[in-house]
Amino acid sequence: MERRVVITGIGMISPLGLTTAANWEAAVNGRSGIGPITRFDTSRFDTRIAGEVKNFDPADFIEKKEIKKMDRFMHLAIAASEEALADSGLKITPENAERIGVVVGSGMGGLETLSHNENIFNQHGPGRVSAFFIPGCVINLAPGQISIRTGAKGPNFSPVSACATGTHSIGEAYHIIKRGDADAIITGGAESTITPLAVAGFNSMKALSTRNDEPEKASRPFDANRDGFVMSEGAGILILEELEHAKARGAKIYAEIVGFGMNSDAYHIAAPVPDGSGAAKCMQLAIRSAGLRPEDVDYINAHGTSTPANDATETAAIKMAFGEHASKLMISSTKSMTGHLLGAAGGVETAFTALALYHRIVPPTINYENPDPACDLDYVPNQARKADIRVALSNSFGFGSTNACIALKRYAE
């Protein structure tokens, strides 16, 4: 009997809010979480805006003596995992611990902790570098900390694939459960890199929006006047569970994961192949692995970064993958509201996709004001839409030519 995989819990922290409910309410109402950077002096920077998580206190989730031993991305991962576990009702016990794993990634990891300890080293020498520097910033300590704190003894690791990290994490977790190596996985992505070094680096690449005077309008996927992405932080964590395991304990089911595709453009370190063929193939792989046809898909949560290259290329990819059906698809980029959470984006966006299926509401692409001839599909502009969607995809593409796409379906017995 084929093992089916469902989503039974969601935890979300983003610039839109500190809980899944707050994030969903803001997304459905088309609110932006973008504002001026408050963490450091931005006067010398071309970009002075970002999607900061406001009012987050790690002490609400982590013992005070432990907080300083971890980077902020770990704090966010732990907090979102606690919400996801509570939402799912999944209890980790000595009896089931070896069948429950943690697969959580990050694109850049503890950059803030790295920069802080580099400054200490330069100012005071090697003897003053914290003993917690290394475990406080390496990426796989996010799932490691979650495992230690929850007692989950199953598979435990971190995929790392830039902005596709969260989606790759969920795809790997899906396959682990599907092949029988675990019954449940805590999975997704976390990121917190709103630091001087990261903003300077992305500015040097000319990748970030410089619409500093209108932060809430800076992230504008598929709009003709888009000028770059807006960096954000947060975490998106899901509880994936084998269907019979979930049913046996009466779990709520948000959606079923039915397919996953991943591949490479093999083209450029930071740019998509212009014809969109790599992303198109990735979507086709996800659809094929789900045993579906392109015309079965109703909605795509697009990668939709608000960069000139990505949005036109993703549009071309959708047309290539879906043919005539492309014009009938609903497509939205929730990055228009959250900004780009880098390695956490796939976790947050898969969560939004599952919620769209569960509530039968498609979140909008806000700030869509000026149509671009190269982006001429239905991007659900500016207002959420009630729709009887049954099958949806969530796309993530990352530096290094990497692509990932996950296929979800409204759960039915």
Essential attributes:
single chain; 413 residues; alpha/beta; Peroxisomal Thiolase, Chain A, domain 1; 2 domains; ten-stranded mixed beta sheet; two-stranded antiparallel ribbon; 13 helices; globular
Number of helices: 13
CATH topology of the largest domain: Peroxisomal Thiolase, Chain A, domain 1
Which band does the percent of strand residues land in?
15-25%
The average pLDDT score comes to 98
How many discrete domains? 2
Low-confidence stretches: none
Give the spatial strand order of the biggest sheet: 5-4-6-7-1-8-14-13-9-10
- CATH-scheme architecture of the largest domain: 3-Layer(aba) Sandwich
Query: What is the helix fraction of residues, given as a range?
Result: 25-40%
User: Tell me, what is the CATH class of the largest domain?
Assistant: Alpha Beta
Number of strands: 14
Overall SS class: alpha/beta
Rg over alpha carbons? 20 Å
- Give the SSE order as H and E letters: EHEEHHEHHHEHEHEHEHEHEHHEEEE
Global outline: globular
C-alpha termini separation:
15 Å
